[in-house]
Specification:
FAD/NAD(P)-binding domain; 2 domains
């Protein structure tokens, strides 16, 4: 039996592994794909303390190597469920079942994609899902934001201070986000609204050079030259396998505050998969430290 099982090897999960191992607890990290999570697709990280410039892959590799060197065990299997019997919790994967005293769920969330041809291949080459992460690379350039909620509007406002021109492409004739933000954007001379339209094609020559948008009402298409496209149409938390045990909010995120506590004693949530306002690399690492500290305290209470 392990002291702590961590589900997810993103920044939150691997940070939790480091803290748990430094507390001399046995740790198993389960990961469905590869270590790193979403950050592994980021070509250049500029907003993490100490490392002014580091690729997402290099950052993730360094954290992984640190956790492994401390004795954390990594197994690449997808966790599909948890059962709780108090002092013993069982984590079931697609291949095996593992026992532990405490669980940290750090499965994160995935960006909801447009689902059009070439999208995946252009991530980091003109397509981004995080304006605060990548916006600085488009200073003085032309960008577009796809979406109509608060995230899209806030991204557009952030980019309007950096880019020469910002297009906001929304599939409806009005926005779901705050009207005050919409009004602020309307005052910006470098912001243009493209209503009742969807991004239907990405045009690229190694990097994104333009987007095609299609008017939903008329069917007419328009090609807009851009250097970057920021997709802000929501995120999809990866928590469905735990819904029968852990309380989720209406959007599918684990209901846990800054203390990372869930409704089940001994099960904790860290990273982008829990309810939170700021989903950044630094807050994921913070969650990992908080959750691991709480899990270590819980394990100690059983001894």
């Amino acid at each position: 039996m392990y002291d702590i099982i961590i589900i997810g090897a993103g920044p939150a999960g691997m940070t939790a592994a480091i803290y748990a191992r430094r507390a001399s607890k046995s740790v198993l990290v389960l990961e469905a794909l590869t270590y790193g999570g979403q950050i592994i697709n980021t070509p250049d990280i500029e907003n993490y303390p100490v490392a002014a410039h580091i690729s997402g892959f290099e950052f993730a590799t360094k954290v992984y190597e640190q956790a492994e060197a401390l004795g954390a065990e990594f197994v690449f299997e997808k966790a599909v469920g948890i059962t709780d019997s108090g002092t013993c919790k069982k984590v079931k994967t697609t291949e095996n079942e593992y026992e532990c005293k405490a669980v940290i769920i750090a499965t994160g969330s995935a960006n909801r994609k447009l689902g059009i041809e070439g999208e995946d291949g252009l991530v980091g080459r003109g397509v981004s899902y995080c304006a605060t992460c990548d916006g600085a690379f488009y200073r003085g350039k032309t960008v577009a934001v796809a979406g109509g909620g608060n995230t899209a509007l806030e991204d557009a406002l952030y980019l309007a201070d950096l880019a020469e021109k910002v297009y906001i492409v929304h599939r409806r004739d009005s926005f779901r986000g705050d009207e005050t933000t919409v009004n602020t954007l309307k005052q910006r001379s470098n912001v243009e609204f493209v209503y009742n339209s969807n991004v239907t094609k990405l045009i690229a020559d190694k990097r994104l050079t333009a987007i095609e948008v299609t008017d939903k009402l008329t069917g007419e298409t328009r090609e807009i030259p851009v250097d970057g496209l920021f997709v802000a149409i929501g995120r999809v938390p990866e928590n469905r396998g735990f819904a029968q045990l852990i309380t989720l909010d209406d959007a599918g995120y684990i209901s846990a505050g800054e203390d990372c506590l869930t409704n089940v004693p001994g099960i904790f949530a860290a990273g982008d998969g829990r309810t939170k306002d700021v989903r950044q690399l630094v807050t994921a690492a913070s969650d990992g430290a908080v959750a691991a500290t709480a899990a270590v305290r819980f394990v100690a209470s059983l001894e």
